[in-house]
Amino acid sequence: MTQDSNLESLRYVDGKMTLLDQLQLPLIVHYDAITSVQDGWDAIREMKVRGAPAIAVAAALSLSVEILSMTKANKFSDTSALKEHALEQLEHLKSSRPTAVNLFNMADWFKVYIEDKYEVLSKDSVLELAEAIDEKAKKMMVDDVSKNKLIGDHGAEAMVKMTQKKDELRVLTHCNTGSLATAGYGTALGVLRSLHAQNLLKRAYCTETRPYLQGARLTAFELSHDKLPGTLIADSMVSMLFKNKMADAVVVGADRIVANGDTANKIGTYQIAISCAYHKIPFFIAAPTTTIDLSLKSGDQIVIEERAATEMKSISGVMFADPDIEVWNPAFDVTPATLITGIITECGTFYKPEGSDTFDLSSQIANI
Ligand code: MRU
Predict the structure, then answer these.
(1) What is the ipTM of this complex?
(2) Does the annotation count 14 as an active-site position?
(3) What is the Cα–Cα distance from 97 to 165, expressed in whole angstroms?
(4) CA 119, 125, 131, 135: dihedral to nearest 10 degrees?
(5) Which of 6, 145, 282, 288 would be a feasible disulfide site paired with 341, CB 3.0-4.6 Å?
């Protein structure tokens, strides 16, 4: 990748998929070939690709790659065999990581889509069904980028409105929500890109985001790559930043937003939101509506992934903590709706109804 090229978490051309190995960033830029659903599943589980929207798109494309290559090798006797295989593999993909709902939403919508296509095709239209799956997966990739651009613009507008600032916004973000966490542009980082494009961004602060360092390794890389004014801070510096009046607003992404607005996002998000409330700093979530899970009423119902101890005790294979010490390593936390100023989506920004501590996303979305 050159400094001028676009950052791409994944590439997909003519049924061939490659995926940027984010474990090696920022030192090594290397794309791995993904030739099957199992390759996609492994890359998601190992966090070579991560970020809620990117996980969903990577999973969908890995399905398409597998179905196309099996179809070309005449592995399906008829459309029924193809459909059964695709539905099984969608279920399998759901088991790769538990918290980000985009993957589950993608699998459920894809299942309905495949079943509908199957109904209208004749039994021997195997290639047509495979190509329909391919078209759908490619569309998900393209749609993700378009939604992110809308999120960026709605977010920039919401921030200007909330902070009453016409220029010189200084905004903190956490984890990585940029091109690397999506099919392109990014969600919370997309808001920063959009502010920058409108000359409204004075500085983007990014946290290191321990233990996996998505901020230091990925967000700092994206900010520098796209020449946004960026400053990296350790997670433990956030409250000091606010106390010193160095930030006007915060925008972060989400892995699952439930009906009342409680939001699961990268571990450390909750403590940033608490500090925002104390320092009276607006705290925004930015995510596509595919991250909203209306089936859950409260954040207490969200399954939080716990990851391996080695991910906390070592960096790039180098151990820096006592090998015998026990570790608790939840990958996400839940920020209660009370602490959230607004939820920025591609459809606009949702705020809490007058006099309410929580959002009412079911009715707010129904009214779009
Ligand atoms: O564990 P990760 O790196 O997949 O976690 C990523 C996050 O928590 C992001 O903030 C979230 O997925 C939104 S990405 C647009």
Answers:
(1) 0.98
(2) no
(3) 39
(4) -30
(5) 282
Residues with Cβ within 8 Å of residue 74, at least 6 apart in sequence: none
Rounded distance from Cα 57 to ligand 1 centre (Å): 14
Ligand 1: residue of 10, 25, 50, 149 to mutate (most ligand atoms within 8 A of CB) is: 50
Cβ(171)–Cβ(195) below 8 Å: yes
Top mutation candidate among 7, 149, 175 for ligand 1, by most atoms within 8 Å of CB = 175
Number of Cβ within 10 Å of residue 339's Cβ equals: 19
**Entry pTM:** 0.95
What integer is the mean pLDDT of 240-261?
Answer: 98
Task: For tokens 């794309």, name the residue.
Answer: 31
Per residue in 7-47, pLDDT (tens digit) is: 899 999 999 999 999 999 999 999 999 999 999 999 999 99
CA of 89 to the centre of ligand 1 (A): 23
Q: Which atom of ligand 1 is nearest to the CA of 187?
A: 15
Annotated catalytic residue within 226, 248, 255, 333: 255
Tokens 């960033």 belong to which residue? 25
Q: Which of 176, 202, 201 is nearest to 188 (CA)?
A: 176
Q: 167 vs 159, 198, 203, 341, CA distance in Å?
A: 11, 9, 11, 20
Q: Which of 74, 92, 67 is nearest to 17 (CA)?
A: 67
Give the distance (Å) from ligand 1 centre to CA of residue 66.
26
Q: Of all protein residues, whose CA lies closest to atom 15 belonging to ligand 1?
A: 177
